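Handoff note, outgoing to incoming analyst
You'll be picking up this chain. Sequence as last confirmed:
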Amino acid sequence: MHNRGTPTGGAVATPTKPKRRVRLSAGSTRAARGGALYLDDRLGLGRWLRPNLRKLFPSHWSFLLGELALYSFVLIVLTGTFLTFFYQPDPDLAFASVREISLDVRGGLLVRQLHHWGATVFVLSIVAHLFRVFFTGAFRKPRELTWTLGVLLFGLVLFESFLGVSLTADQLAFTGLREAQGLLLSIPLAGTYLSRFLFDGTFPGEVVPRLFVTHVLLVPGILLAVVPLHGLILTWRQKHTERRLAGSDESKVTGGPFFPYFAVKNGATALFTMAAIALLATFVRVNPVWEHGAYQPGRPPPSAQPFWYFGVLDGGLRLTPPWEITVGGYVLQVGLWIPMLVLAAFFLVLLCYPFIDRRLTGDRRSHHLLDRPSQAPVRTAAGVAVITFFTVVWAATWVSEIPPDPAAPSPLLAAPHDTYLAIVYGLRAAVFLLPPIAYAVTLAHCRRRAARRPV
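Most recent structure output, in case you need it:
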């Protein structure tokens, strides 16, 4: 008879205990599976996740411009939270606290510059994203609401940037704020009330705590609602736009699944965005408030170039003649209104453009394929003309007249009085001449390309 319980050779096998790493891995797997099943039973996450993780997303790099803005916004929120721990929103202490953050708080200057460059990249990404959507026609049905929220987001970010720049309370910041107060006071009837509400009396009054609350609570609260609605909810619910390629169709959906394809691209984009902003913050110094000093009434502002997105208003004020009209004993500053009215009209047209385009073209169909700019020559030419107009207006901020006081800070590009006047008159003429020329040249170029490359 044979002993079936004893293996050949007479040795008995002894079970070995799994290693610690294997036990931890198995335990973590069971815990994760149990947690997922627990949440799925109560919230139904599995039914929502399965189709959404397989949702297709485009592969072209230009579709990631919105993600650049999103991750810049995340960095702004994180660095802004750090800065609020040290900033004191008091008219008498605000400048001292900013100086302390810059020179005394460990890592404070780096965080300040991360905040600044994050905001700059945020605005640049939104502008580039708007350009892509406009010139490719991605604003058309069924994405009108997404476009409208994007324009609203653009305006809020510009306003938020102005508030942040003003909070440093140095000579440069309050000089710009003083200019804003002058614009408010020029508004008929309501101007004095608006100035009183904001400044609570004489300048600067109680403007710092009010700017702080608006900058830290009010506008970010609106942004935290608009950004997810614009960038996640609406985009996720709708079919994404497609590049117009050979064999493409309005009804087809192409691209890679969200997980892992688009999730990996998003992760790489986030790391690239943070790294680029960190490099800028490390090597490029911005707004050295300790050199500008605290605000002193009547003291000339330091030599500095306005931010490009504020330079449009500043350039418009330089190019507009100082027209005044006296009505019933009241002097109306018409010259100050024109730049503000132009900007207001621009944002109003931008906000309503999907509906204006539908009315002008009569096209009420749903569009999922993007246009090449040459396929919409009128729209492309109009966009280039508007860009040309604002570029000329912005150019007016780059040259200033030599100040009469030798002790005053010298501008970056200074010119004698006669030369400066000649430049201003030349730019005034260019505002009216260059946009139509840009429109005509772009229109002819697009039509020539469309004729060579039919759809």
